[in-house]
Amino acid sequence: MIPRRSRRFSSTHKRPAALKPGMTMALVAPAGPFPSAQVETIQRLLRDEGFQVVTGRHIHTRDRYLAGPDAFRARDLLWALTDPQVDAIFTIRGGYGSSRLLTRLPLSSLGAKAKLLCGYSDITFLHAALGTLARWVTFHGPNAIEFAEDPQVLKRTLAFLQGTRPFQWALPNSVILQEGRAEGRVVGGNLTCFSHLVGTPYMPDVDGALLFLEDKAEAPYRIDRMLMHLKAAGILHRIAGLIGGTFTDCGDPDEIRMILKEYTAARPIPVVLGLPFGHGHCNDVLPLGARFILDTSRGVLACEEPPLDP
Fold it and tell me: For residue 229, what are the contacts with CB-CB under 8 A and spacing of at least 6?
């Protein structure tokens, strides 16, 4: 049975334009600090691909474990979200700090036109808030610092965001924990961050959704505790399927599989693990807020509506 469509995640979700040479990309740092020298490398790589590049005014400031004071980081992010000259936004790094900005941003009053936002890890907070309050489709994918570390990551990321690579993945290399077929909007991101959204106005509506989760360097008992929190909050009882990305450096992979299976076994929903999203060697771009089909009999996860405007 196909789950009912969530009212919040309807076809009115706003899609950003696909990237094209000549567009202007903004680099912002809403979370943790990073080596300043890498920004020049990122800018050069993006310009070599034909894009204009601008940066937030405060990206080189520092405040303890943050890339500057909250007010500065929020100001840069709001500029990127609202400046009509900016077409797309890449977050430079995850770490910690995005959640501290949410109360400072008028996300529900953003313009009717969505902008492309790409990032992951701590950026899960921004994905959730923009999807819930601004109704934007956003893109879980590499942070820009990874372009400087491996230019091939940029090439692969642009292939998705320019619309030349389909948002479709085969399942044979993944671990199918439960068989089934479901369709729904994809929500989620980093498990640690997503679990901290419970009880906030930024928590996505999970009714009939495909929940995507990934994480890094969390011990199995911590993964268990966060999933228990989602279960107790009623989240796991409302989803239509679970898409597991990579759980990198999270202990014994068999134990992670067992934990995920334990928390989803009570419901007849498809559950897969090991798709190339997250902190693993390959971090493909996954549109959050877009509608997908997860079908284990066909062995496919596929977007059923264009997440980008041509």
Answer: 195, 198
